[in-house]
Structures are given as C-alpha cells and as structure tokens.
Amino acid sequence: MRPSVKRVLIGSVAGSVVLGGVLVLLPPDGGGKAKPPALGPAGRAMAAVGAGAPAALPDLAVLIGEREAQVRAHPRDEQSWAVLGSAYVARGVRTADFRDFPKADRALHTSLRARPEGNPEALTGLAALANARRDFRSARKWGELAVKQAPKRWTAYPALIDAYSGLGDAKGVGRALESLQELGSGTAVLARSGQVYRDRGWREDANAALTDAAALAVAPAAKAAALHRVAELAWERGEPTVALRHYDAALAADAEHHPSLAGRGRALAALGRSSEALLAYRSALAKHPLPEYALELGELYESLRLAPAARAQYDALRTLVRQARTRGINNERVLGLLEADHGDADAAVKRLTAEYKRHGSPETADALGWALHRSGESEAGLKLVTKAMDKGPRSALFAFHRGSIERELQYYGASRRHLNEALRINPYFSPLGVPAAKRALAALGEPPEGGPEEMYAPEPAPHVTRPTRAVPRAPDGARDGD
C-alpha cells in the first residue's frame, strides 16, 4: 500500500531560531498559540540550508558574510565552519557558480578537523556538496555517517535520499524517505516526498505533495522550487500550457530560479513559440551556464535547421563540462548523451560505461543503452533501456529509446508499442525525438489484420553488425534496488 501524502504540517522549519550560530528546530508547543520568533536574513538562510531547502541569495550573502567574520575571529568554531560550508554549497547550487564548491569543501573539512566526532552538521553539508557534484557514492558515505551520528536528526535524510536516487538504490530511497517522514514535517519534507513519488511513477501522489509544498512555502525560493517541480510533472505528462503557467509562477516567486527559466523555454518550444523559447534558453544560459541547458538549446536550434547555432551550443557544452570538471563536478551523463547523438558514439559508450559503474541509476542505464545502440550494439543497448523503463519513472524519452532500438532489431510489434507510448506520455518530449518517433511509426505502418504471424515491416537497409559487448554491472547500491 502506498504511504499517504502528508498534508498536516507541524514544527516546520519556519518555526526555527538561531542561537549562538546553531540551528535549533523548535518542537510544536501543543497548544499552537505561541508564534515562533521572526528570523532575520541570516536566520532565514540558516533555517533553509539546515533543512536542505533553497535559500534566497541576499539572505545567503548575509549569512556567509557573518560566518566568514565569525571564523576569522574564532578559527576553531566548528559549528560556524559547518554552517559556512553548507551556505557555500547552497549558493553554488542557486547560482551555478561552482567556484563556491572548493570553498565549501575546505570549510566543511575544517569543521570536521575541529570536531571529528559528533558533528552531523558538517557531515550533512559534505553529503549535500557531493550530491551537487554528482558524486553520489561520496554523498552516500557522508549521509550515512551523519545519520549514524544523529539518527533522529531529520535534516540529514534529504541528502541521503538524493544520494540513493543517484545510485539507483530504490530500497535505500524508501528507507530514508520513511525515516524522513517519521522524523520531520514541513515544506522540505513534502517536496522531497513528491520527488520520490514521481520517481516511482506515482504521479497523483507526487502532484499532491508538491502542490501542498508550493502552497505552504513561505520563503520565495522554496515556493519557486516547489512550483518548478509541479511544472515538471505537468511537462512530463505532456501538458506544456499547464507547465508554462507553473514555470511562470515559479519565476514570479523568484526571478533568479534558473531551472524554471529553462523549463519555460522547453514549454514555449512545445507550443510553437520558438522565438520566445530561444530567448528563454539564452537567458537561462547567460545567467546560469549549465551543460544540460546548452544541450536543450542546441537541439532546439537543430530542430529549427539552424545547424551552425546548434554546433556552437554543443561546443559550449563541452567547454562547460571541462570547466566544471576542474571543480570536481561530474557531468558525464549529459556529455555522453551529447556524444551519442551529435558526436562520437564510441566515446559516449566508454564514458557512460564508467559512469554506470559508478552511478547505476535508471537515467544512466538509459543513456548508456542508447549510446550502445548508436554505436551499433543494439542488443546490449536494449537490455539497459529495458531496465531503465522497469526501474525508473514513466518517461517518454525512455520509451522512445526502447522503441527505436527495437525497430533496429526488427522487433516491430514491440517497437510500435513503445514509440506510441512515448508520444502518449508526452507528445512534446523532444524537438528532435518527436519527429523521429513519428517517422519511425509511419515507416512501421499499422499492424496487418492477419495477426502476429504477419507482423513484419519492410526489410531494413543492410547495416554492419559489431561484436556485442557485455552489459556492465551497476554499482552495489543500484543492485540493492533491483
């Protein structure tokens, strides 16, 4: 039986105070009459950072300035070092300025050196930093240490959920979510619950949790993040008009919320408003140059037959990945997707095989399966994209990849079924993938009336068959979720 979505919120992060540089979560008073003291900018940022929730950039700037001054005056203050490091992580994620990450690493390890034991704040910060760098194994290590030191401290569990998700460990996600829901409540818990429900394919539960999180969020940054997730759900089920409305609402709450700006470009492109879509994407990239935005913009340019502009974005993506790598950030999956479709498919296989061994999530399985297909190893690829569909969320892209590979392998009935499924899930899922799916279905035609014995499409063009590689094994955490 699915767990019910929590709708009653008590003891939320808004009811926290800051005493001596320590975030203290106040329990409900029972009568509900007393109001928590109002928080200043630093207190608001600390409350958000402590809960793993987005914080406003001006509030983060105040908090960082205060903690920097504190550690200069008191270099052995492990609590201030932990808060400072976590604030650097939060700012780096918000701004996509990854120069904050090395500073966060130094601050959090300084906190641990000052207090090696009984320091779950620093450990939780290191887990959040590792997640931001997409180093999910390290995030799991730090998160599990934080939980071991303070198992009743709910704020460690969101980072642990993200780590298990990145490793494809569904059972680990379930255990961590159960602990989070038992120990905590509030907008941050609802938001994390909604994301897990989405990954499980529980769309109604996900929408309920995320809608509640958006309605109950007080801080503009938290409201924008929740509204963005609601928009993403609408996008994934093929409702670009609804998605656009929520992306706009997120940007109204927080104009600097770059994921919603890129999402707005995606929705506008689906609605045929290409000029506005290009403007939204360019604005997102100018403010927050992330490789995934460059890939989406490049593919939009390519769909509009603007090949030079598309190539420029693909080149920019490679540059962004190289720059991020110097800060310890892993963008191997998005680079592998680029190479599979627009570059060297063999190089994509090598890159994504290594990534899958590190992080065996459904998304990585799908990316590697597609790269194997693009490099001529469709049998091996089909095994992985099938696993991605079985273990991952309901995804139009996963279904498209599977249907395309099945067509190559002459499994025409299955191909027709999965290509149609991709278009049913989201008829706008990709500016390049949607036309490709429609062309493939047109070539397959309708199944003949004679039934399965006559279900054959025309003979495909001859192609070279390469030796099939063994499908790599996912890491231990991913196998736990099988």
TrEMBL record:
InterPro entries, per this entry? TPR-like_helical_dom_sf, TPR_rpt
Extract the ranges annotated as region (Disordered): 443-482
Q: Name the Pfam families on file.
A: TPR_16
The annotated regions of Low complexity compositional bias extend over 443-458
- What is the protein's name according to its record? Tetratricopeptide repeat protein
- The species is Streptomyces venezuelae
